[in-house]
Design goal:
alpha+beta; 3 domains; 12 strands; 47% helix; disordered N terminus
Length: 424
């Protein structure tokens, strides 16, 4: 198997991220005493489990909680095993979304040392805290796939032996001495997100020890409006709202076509990046759009400054993501590697238009639907439900949503000041 070693194998190894797909399970180990103990107890040569949720991105549960990590920075020391497992029966798109959504929702949850230690014992009481193999097994169980007999209590060795999984071969490669020096000296930029998330949660837990994940903060704030000031301050001091600036500065070539053209990476490397980004986009709606819609709804029902800041953050992240998609698509189109896609405009107030608007701004969709019901006509203004109204298309393509409106003359004059548009 992939994890086997021999006496001549002395180089550290890394995973070939191009061979790893969304939903894949990554199993590893380290020379640490705790890892050695886990391997001895379980009789396996691995001690840790992760799930791939994006390009070179995995989520796992370690001592600092459930967080995302950069798979390309993970180095297996000489003699340490590493495997990539994939469901024997391919996941449906819905199942894959379920798996990824489950682990993303757990981000920030504290690690359970006791749970990890007792994971092979029967009858142990299930808790909300996580450890690595439980996180993986529960995510798949939620999607209707049972990897082990008990998703609440399992260890990495059980995942390795699961008949529901198959090993992907040749996923590891040796690091050269020069590569190793560069990799060990490079900064783990994902650590900044882990630190920021933990700072935010640490402040939130001062209000309630029951808060485990970021989602728990939202639920707590719904019931405790007086916590808004404290949590807004925590959001700001943790730098949670500012990390996107670091990402933009670090990977500017991904957001600007001109910079991408000049970026010092091989044409093949850029091609792989662009194709993988667009392939991931086709799997389903990006999480920034989903999160934006959720906070729009939350803030409409329970107005909080904390929720409003999250709306602004996810609107910005959606726009940044759209820039990446556009740059990647244009780079491929210029080389004849991708057929240009014509923009499909949705006629306002059609079922397809409402479906698109709900994904981005469910509050506006609900208001427009209410106005239409009261007026008894679809031909009213999207904003105020007055008549007469005409259809318009935004000149600056929005990052999400339909990009078309049905407006009366007054609403057109007001909206077109900040949002240039033309008749549709």
């Amino acid at each position: 198997m992939e994890g086997e070693t021999n006496e001549l194998e002395l180089r550290p190894r890394v995973f070939d991220s191009y061979l790893i797909q969304l939903g894949d399970i990554v199993l590893t180990t380290t020379p640490d005493p705790m890892s050695l103990t886990i391997r001895r107890v379980t009789g396996a040569d691995i001690s840790h489990a992760m799930i791939c949720v994006g390009k070179s991105s995995v989520i796992d549960s370690t001592g600092d909680g459930v967080h995302a990590r950069n798979l390309e920075r993970l180095i297996l020391e000489p003699g340490c095993a590493g495997y990539v497992l994939r469901p024997l029966k391919p996941l449906t798109t819905e199942q894959l979304h379920s798996v990824i959504s489950f682990v993303r929702a757990a981000v920030g949850t504290r690690y359970s040392m006791t749970g990890a230690a007792k994971s092979v014992l029967a009858g142990f009481v299930v808790g909300r805290r996580q450890y690595c193999s439980r996180l993986v097994a529960q995510a798949y169980h939620r999607a209707g796939v049972n990897l082990v007999p008990d998703a609440d209590f399992c260890h990495p060795g059980e995942l390795l032996k699961s008949v529901a999984l198959v090993e992907i071969p040749n996923v590891l490669r040796d690091l050269s001495a020069a590569e190793e020096a560069d990799w060990r000296d490079s900064i783990d930029h994902v650590q900044a997100m882990r630190d920021s998330t933990n700072l935010l949660l640490r402040e939130a837990r001062k209000l309630s020890s029951d808060i485990e994940s970021l989602n728990d903060i939202d639920a707590y704030l719904v019931e405790h409006q007086e916590a808004d000031v404290h949590l807004v301050q925590a959001l700001r001091t943790s730098r949670y709202l500012d990390l996107w600036r670091d990402e933009l500065e670090r990977n500017a070539w991904q957001y600007h076509l001109a910079v991408m053209e000049e970026y010092e990476r091989s044409a093949e490397g850029k091609k792989r990046y662009c194709e993988e980004l667009l392939a991931s986009e086709k799997l389903g709606q990006n999480r920034f759009v989903v999160n934006h819609a959720c906070y729009v709804t939350l803030n409409a029902l329970h107005p909080r400054k904390y929720f409003a800041l999250k709306i602004d953050l996810y609107k910005l992240l959606t726009q940044q993501h759209a820039r990446r998609i556009k740059a990647a698509a244009t780079w491929l189109e210029r080389r004849g590697l991708l057929e240009p896609e014509l923009r499909t405009l949705l006629r306002p107030h059609t079922p397809e238009w409402f479906a698109s608007l709900r994904e981005w701004n469910p509050k506006q969709a609900a208001m427009t639907e209410a106005g239409i019901r009261i007026a008894g006509s679809l031909d009213v203004c999207t904003v105020c439900a007055d008549e007469p109204a005409r259809d318009y298309v935004l000149l600056n393509t929005p990052a999400a949503g339909p990009g078309t409106l049905r407006l009366c003359d007054d609403c057109f004059r007001i909206r077109s000041i900040d949002e240039p548009m033309k008749t549709f």
